[in-house]
Specification:
Rossmann fold, 6 strands, 201 residues, alpha/beta, globular, 9 helices, 16% strand
Length: 201
């Protein structure tokens, strides 16, 4: 069995980011995604360098990967530097390559409401919506602005009701759902500042 075949028909959530550092908010979203979207796995795609973020204060990739592994603590959460393996930089091209590499896997892109606001700044952002279904999770203070933002309005007719989110992985893109989960307010910024950095899981 090839590596590609081993993921055939698996429902896989992709959570991308700098993970600088990984924190319990990432774990919280991942576990909610596993449950609500009925996923088999969630892959944490640790970015070598986010094109929209400064490299100042960015920890070494290996340190961030180890941090992520220490936080994940769930065999269904796979920490990966797959962008290096694929030779990609931008999310749009990464998702395209992932689908080419694992053509029988069922991917869902996972992101917070803050990224729904920011996604129009991403390279080829509209192709992300057209490549894989997307699940968007509540983030404190961002929800209303995100749902009123350009991306949400541009793809409004492809929004799936929250109670149908468990079907996202088998839907044809574009398709997206907004999940009003109880949020975990921890952010990487607060963790780096030493606020709320205890009791991480």
């Amino acid at each position: 069995m090839t590596k590609s075949e081993s993921f055939a028909n698996k429902r896989i959530g992709i959570l991308g980011g700098s993970f600088n550092p990984a924190h319990r908010g990432h774990a919280h979203i991942s576990k909610q995604a596993l449950k609500l979207l009925q996923l088999d796995e969630v892959w944490w795609m640790v970015s070598p360098q986010n094109p929209l973020k400064s490299s100042d204060g960015m920890a070494d990739l290996n340190i961030r990967i180890e941090s992520a592994r220490s936080i994940a603590q769930d065999k269904r959460i796979r920490v990966t530097d797959i962008e290096i393996e694929l030779g990609t930089t931008y999310t749009a091209e990464t998702l395209t390559k992932l689908k080419q590499t694992y053509p029988k896997a069922r991917f869902v892109w996972l992101m917070g409401a803050d990224n729904l606001m920011q996604i129009p700044k991403w390279k080829d952002w509209q192709s992300i919506f057209r490549t894989v279904p997307i699940a968007i999770f509540t983030r404190p203070t961002y929800t209303n602005r995100a749902l009123a933002g350009f991306a949400a309005r541009r793809f409004a007719r492809y929004r799936v009701d929250e109670n149908q989110a468990h079907r996202l992985s088998i839907m044809q893109a574009p398709a997206w759902a907004f999940l009003n989960i109880k949020p975990d307010a921890i952010s990487a910024t607060r963790v780096r500042a030493g606020i709320g950095a205890v009791n991480l899981y």
